[in-house]
Design goal:
By secondary structure, this protein is an alpha+beta fold. It is about 45% helix and about 10% strand. The longest helix has 24 residues. The radius of gyration is 20 Å and the shape is globular. The structure holds flavin mononucleotide (FMN).
């Protein structure tokens, strides 16, 4: 197994960091790695924000409710961004729109590929990272705090920093349940693999929490997906010119 695969397979989200801040050189290296990701039609429909202002970090922590949004080596926010495209078109006397679901997919995929490149780059430098989707607990306010213009919205944050602990690795679904060859396998063909996985995850939580928690993976995702949450996201995206008017 080569070093890149070893690094990828060793991923775990880290949420406790030392007080050491990322240097500008490190930030530039990480942003450069992020920007090297493929981008749909070369459109580069994202921006990356760094948040260093303590007041803004505090306000974003309140939205996310997660302490590591405030305490980290650096807080990045990945923004889906068609603002600059719109402005450049206007300057050229043209009109563009990005209101189709396809445009939204392009922006979200572009930003996500860039983010994952950054995550891998950071981990290769001995840093830890955690994505912060909880900034979408109040996507409008997050946008206001960051001064986002129309055509841009905050997709997620990413905290990075020098690890204070090693974290722990969470096993993924088994190969058999995720990889389908030629024809999609329905649930009954992979049920036993998923059940065995569920049991391992339950044991993992039980061991980590001294028995306080022993939920299975399938219980977790049913609970998560049955909640109607962040219903304001559609409205805010529409206000910003996405998803039709
Ligand atoms: C888009 C995205 C958003 C996430 N948002 C959060 C978050 O708000 N808070 C958090 O603690 N972890 C967040 N995570 C981390 C996931 O919980 C984590 O990746 C998952 O549980 C698997 O654990 P691992 O990364 O340690 O392997 C997010 C991950 C992704 C990809």
């Amino acid at each position: 197994m080569n070093d890149v695969i070893k690094l990828l397979n060793n991923h775990r989200s880290l949420r406790k960091f030392t007080d050491e801040k990322l240097s500008l050189e490190t930030i530039k290296t990480l942003v450069g790695a992020a920007q090297s990701a493929s981008t749909s039609s070369y459109v580069q429909a994202y921006s990356i924000m760094g948040v260093t202002d303590p007041e803004k970090k505090k306000a974003l922590r309140e939205i996310s409710t997660q302490s590591y949004v405030e305490h980290n080596g650096h807080l990045f926010v990945f923004v889906v961004d068609f603002y600059r495209h719109k402005e450049l078109a206007e300057q050229a006397g043209e009109e563009i729109s990005y209101d189709k679901t396809e445009n939204l997919i392009v922006g979200v995929v572009d930003a996500s590929l860039a983010a994952q490149n950054m995550a891998v780059a950071a981990e290769s430098m001995g840093l830890g990272i955690c994505y912060i989707g909880s900034l979408r607990n109040d996507i409008k306010k997050t946008g206001e705090i960051l001064g986002l213009p129309e055509g841009a919205f905050a997709l997620f944050g990413m905290v990075a920093g020098y690890p204070e602990d090693e974290g722990s690795q969470k096993e993924r679904l088994p190969f058999e349940a995720v990889y389908h060859e030629n024809t999609y396998q329905r649930i009954d063909e992979v049920q036993s693999d998923i059940e065995a996985y569920d049991q391992r995850i339950s044991d993992y939580y039980s061991e980590r929490t001294g028995g306080k928690r022993d939920d299975k993976w399938s219980e977790q995702i049913i609970d998560m997906l049955s909640k109607k949450q962040r219903l304001d996201v559609d409205t805010v995206l529409k206000e910003n010119g996405f998803l039709g008017q």
